[in-house]
Amino acid sequence: MLLVEDSDSDAELLLRCLRQADFDVSATRVDDEAGMRRALAAPRWDLVISDYNLPGFSASAALALLGEAGLDLPFIVVSNNIGEETAVLLMRAGAHDYVMKGNLARLAPAVKRELKEAERRRQHRAAAQALRDSEERWKFALEGAGYGVWDWDIPSGKVVFSSCCTAMHGYADGEIEASIAGRDALLHPDDRARVQAAMRDYFAGATPRFKQEFRASCRDGSWKWVLDNGMIVGRDEHGAPLRMICIHIDLSERKRAEQSLQELNEQLESRVEERTSELRQAMAQIIESEKLASLGVLVAGVSHELNTPIGNMVLAATALHDKLKELSGAIERNQLTRSGLQQGLAECLGASEIIARNGHRSNDLIESFKRVSVDQTSQRRRNFDLRTTVQDSLTALGAITRRAKATVELKIPEGIELDSYPGHLEQIINNVVMNSITHGFDGKPDGRIVIEARRDGELIELVYSDNGHGIAAELQHKVFEPFYTTKLGQGGSGLGLSIVHNLVQAIFKGQLRLDSAPGQGVRLQFTFPAQTPQPSSAVAAGGAGEQIDDDEFSIPPFGTI
Q1: Phi, psi at residue 179, to the nearest 5°?
Q2: Residue 216 in contact with residue 192, Cβ under 8 Å?
Q3: What is the model's pTM?
Q4: CA 109 to CA 115: how far, in whole Å?
Q5: Which of 51, 239, 248, 494 lies at a 20 to 30 A Cα distance from 510?
Q6: Order of strands across the sheet with 48-51?
Q7: Residue 38 phi/psi, 5° resolution?
Q8: Can you list the positions of beta strands (E) in 304-447?
Q9: Which of 374, 375, 368 is nearest to 397 (CA)?
Q10: Cβ neighbours for 305, distance < 8 A, ≥ 6 positions apart
Q11: Cβ distance 4 to 50 under 8 Å?
Q12: d(CA 295, CA 369)
């Protein structure tokens, strides 16, 4: 405390009052102008208490010296003879309070109050300075980055534009009207209503900040795309906005880049569409080629299957012919006995049974092959039984699976009816079976395939599994890619599973899931509707028996299943 007092007893009395109020007081006493000047040169003070009248000095003079020093310290006048009018003049001159020496009980509360007020003023000054420093820093940073700033005093409507903001549009400082009306005059007529509506929404609290892209006029008459990004930074005690600051950013380069990118995208989309059309045509041709190759495998398999029953029929017919010739000769020589006739008839009956049985077997094989070949060549849609269709494919592949020493177990119940494309389903079965034989059972003598199915409401779940070598995790995302094969140059085309994936998605509108691990075989889970959705071309064709549209085929994305 700086104590301006000429009386030792009065000074001691003041210190005693403050210490009794639990103040830890360190005081320096002065009683003239020179002493006070020396004391104020060391700005370590928290408080000034001054007597009103001293010989050759006064509280008014001390208050003036405090003002000259630029210090904001609580200044309390303590006197016996100060009047109310004088006290008012002192308060107007900068004193914070006055206390009569006859009522020193007011001194400690007054000191506490003024110290708190002084601390509040100090914090306010520090915050204001920090704000000024911060504004200077961000204004410097924004101007350095080429961003403009406009500062709007909302009650008055006055707007201050930074030099960068005006230069951005080709104007010199002061050429843009320093008001919100001047700012709105820059807006393009087609954008003005939208920007002003966004400002109203922001002031109403509908948006967290004001952020709008628009065209603004330049001094040369051109228009420039800009971004205004701002917020309210000051409000009054009732919450009404007082000040708003906006960052003004030139978007010309970005807009030019966006326009170039849009043009490139349009060109790319056109090229992609052309390439996709070519790939669709190529994929349709590949599927047709694979379908014919699959049909060739079936022809070879069926011809091999037919060799056995036809050979049996030829042998039985030859034996029957020989026996009948023998009986006829015995009759001509009158050497036919009753027992000989009975034995001959029994042998003839046995031969005829062999012929009939093998004839029926051949007929079944031919009928199965006819269904497969007709469905695969015509892509005909019809109602069919799932088990029968899968069995037809397995029958045609019987010679191949036996040669590979593989067994096939069919666990599909009868009565699962589908309205779809049986030829494509048989093509799927052919491809997955051949994939197991070619890759899964390579060098494995006890290959086993299990095919199961069930109906769940309108969905069919078909599960194909084998006990082959399995597929490593890092390769599983590749097996459905076109032309990917581990048998390159050894008869593998890399198209089998790709076509399976394509048929499941494009034709049956279903999904395919692969589960496998090295040494654990392969499990393929097919899920598709029991009634395949009608493609647009089929609807136009008008019902069952229609041909599918090649455009329904899609190119499977690489690395997906």
Answers
A1: -150, 165
A2: no
A3: 0.38
A4: 10
A5: 494
A6: 28-30, 2-4, 48-51, 75-79, 97-100
A7: -60, -40
A8: 382-385, 407-411, 417-420
A9: 368
A10: 365, 395, 396, 398, 399
A11: yes
A12: 10
